[in-house]
Design a protein that fits this description.
- Helix 3 (50-65) packs antiparallel against helix 10 (218-224).
- The chain has a single domain (15-270), classed as P-loop containing nucleotide triphosphate hydrolases (Rossmann fold).
- The two termini are 21 Å apart.
- The radius of gyration is 19 Å and the shape is globular.
- The protein has 284 residues and is α/β, with parallel strands linked by helices.
- Helix content is 43%, strand content 7%.
- It has helices spanning 15-26, 31-34, 50-65, 111-116, 129-144, 148-153, 165-181, 191-196, 198-208, 218-224, 227-232, 257-270; strands spanning 40-44, 82-83, 97-100, 122-126, 186-190.
Length: 284
C-alpha cells in the first residue's frame, strides 16, 4: 500500500527529541529479554484490540482444555490464560502464554544473541494508527484535558499520554524491524484482518505458538468476542476505563484538514514501514 506523499507544511516536527527518546528507550528496556520462558508471547500495540483478542484466545483455550471459561472480558479473568509475564500461572496444564505492549531492547535484533539465548515465538497485533489514536483519545480524553488536535501532536518524550502518535510509530518501527529480521519467530497480525476473518487469524496465531485448537472451538470463541458480549462481560468500571468504544463513527472523521496534513507529515518522516496500510484519506 502506498505511504502518503510528504506534504508541504510549516509546522515543525520534534524529530530530534523523538529519536533521542527512541534510542534511550531501546537501550534500557530489558523486559522481553528477561521474560522469555513462555510457549508464546502476544505483543499488542495499545488500543489495537488487545482485550478482544485475548478474550477470544482464552475462550478457545478454555474450551479445548475443559477449563472454566473467562468470566469477564477484561481483567482479571482474561489473565487466566494469557497474563502479564510477571504474574503466576493459573492453570499448569495450559500453555504458558504472556502478553505485553512492550517495545524490545536493541539487542533483540541481534542474530548473535538469538544464537545464544532461546526466545519464544511472538505474535504482534497492530492497527491502523489513526484508529488507535482515536480509540485512545476517546478512552482517556477526560484525563488528558486537551482537544483531539492538541493530543494528535503528542509528546515525543513519551511522558504526557498513555499512547500517542510518537509511541505508535516507535512500536510499529521496532516490531516491523524485528518481523523483517526474524519472520519465522514473529507473526504480525493486523486488527483489520482479525475483524474480517477472525477464525483464520486465530488459527494462525495458535499454529504459530504450536498450540492445537479444534476448529469446533473457534466459532464459540469468536462469538464470545462480539461487541455485545464484550460489553455484557465487562467488569463494572468508570466510563473512561471501558474497553469497548461506543462511538461508531469512522476514526478518520476526527481529523480535520490540518490534522490530516500533520499526520501525513509525521508518517512520511518517521514511519519506516507502512505495514500494509493505505494511509490515503477519504474525502472530507
Amino acid at each position: 500500500m502506498p505511504a502518503p506523499v510528504r506534504p508541504t507544511t510549516s509546522e515543525p516536527l520534534p524529530l530530534a527529541t523523538f529519536r533521542w527518546h527512541c534510542r534511550r528507550h531501546d537501550a534500557s528496556n530489558f523486559a522481553l529479554l528477561k521474560h522469555r520462558h513462555f510457549d508464546g508471547f502476544l505483543v499488542t500495540m495499545k488500543n489495537s484490540g488487545t482485550h478482544w483478542l485475548k478474550h477470544m484466545m482464552s475462550t478457545a483455550l478454555a474450551l479445548e482444555l475443559e477449563l472454566p471459561l473467562p468470566q469477564f472480558a477484561d481483567q482479571p479473568s482474561r489473565d487466566d490464560f494469557i497474563s502479564h509475564p510477571r504474574h503466576p500461572r493459573r492453570y499448569p496444564q495450559a500453555p504458558r502464554l504472556a502478553s505485553t505492549h512492550s517495545i524490545p531492547h536493541a539487542w533483540f535484533d541481534s542474530p548473535a544473541l538469538r544464537a545464544c539465548v532461546k526466545l519464544p515465538t511472538y505474535a504482534v497485533l497492530v492497527r491502523d494508527l489513526r484508529a488507535a489514536l482515536v480509540s485512545n483519545y476517546e478512552k482517556w480524553k477526560d484525563d488528558y484535558g486537551v482537544s483531539f488536535k492538541e493530543y494528535l501532536r503528542g509528546d515525543p518524550r513519551g511522558q504526557r499520554y498513555v499512547f500517542d502518535i510518537w509511541g505508535g510509530i516507535h512500536f510499529l518501527n521496532r516490531w516491523g524491524r524485528v518481523a523483517q529480521r526474524f519472520p519465522a519467530a514473529t507473526l504480525e497480525i493486523r486488527y483489520e484482518d482479525l475483524q474480517a476473518s477472525p477464525a483464520s487469524v486465530l488459527g494462525a496465531i495458535f499454529e504459530h505458538f504450536n498450540i492445537t485448537i479444534s476448529p469446533r472451538h473457534l466459532a464459540p470463541a469468536i462469538l464470545s468476542g462480539s461487541k455485545q458480549n464484550m460489553v455484557a462481560k465487562a467488569v463494572p468500571v468508570a466510563p473512561e476505563q471501558r474497553v469497548v468504544r461506543a462511538d461508531e463513527r469512522a476514526p478518520t472523521s476526527w481529523f480535520d484538514a490540518e490534522d490530516r496534513e500533520y499526520f501525513d507529515h509525521v508518517v512520511a518522516c518517521c514511519l519506516a514501514d507502512d505495514h500494509g496500510y493505505d494511509w490515503r484519506w477519504p474525502a472530507l
